[in-house]
Design brief:
It comes from Mycoplasmopsis synoviae (Mycoplasma synoviae). GO terms for molecular function: ATP binding; valine-tRNA ligase activity. Keywords: Aminoacyl-tRNA synthetase, ATP-binding, Ligase, Nucleotide-binding, Protein biosynthesis. One of its GO terms (cellular component) is cytosol. InterPro entries: aa-tRNA-synth_Ia, Rossmann-like_a/b/a_fold, Valyl-tRNA_ligase. The structure is a single chain. With 55 residues, the protein is mostly helical. The protein has a domain of 35 residues. The chain is 36% helix and 0% strand. The chain has 3 helices and no strands. The protein is flat, with a radius of gyration of 16 Å. The mean pLDDT is 87.
Length: 55
């Protein structure tokens, strides 16, 4: 996204970016095995193909 913005508009898309390692579910809870709210990768690959998990 950043490189595309620079290429096509010659401007950076964000001044600041906040990154973290937490992934949250639709209810805002942390996704984890212990909460049993994870995503089954096999189901994702069958439904959307393996590229959905690569990117």
């Amino acid at each position: 996204m950043i490189f595309l913005s620079l290429e096509f508009t010659n401007q950076r898309p964000f001044k600041e970016v906040f990154m973290h390692g937490l992934i949250r579910d639709k209810d805002g809870r942390k996704m984890s095995k212990s909460l049993n709210n994870g995503i089954d990768p096999i189901e994702v690959v069958e439904k959307y193909g393996s590229d959905a998990l690569r990117w």
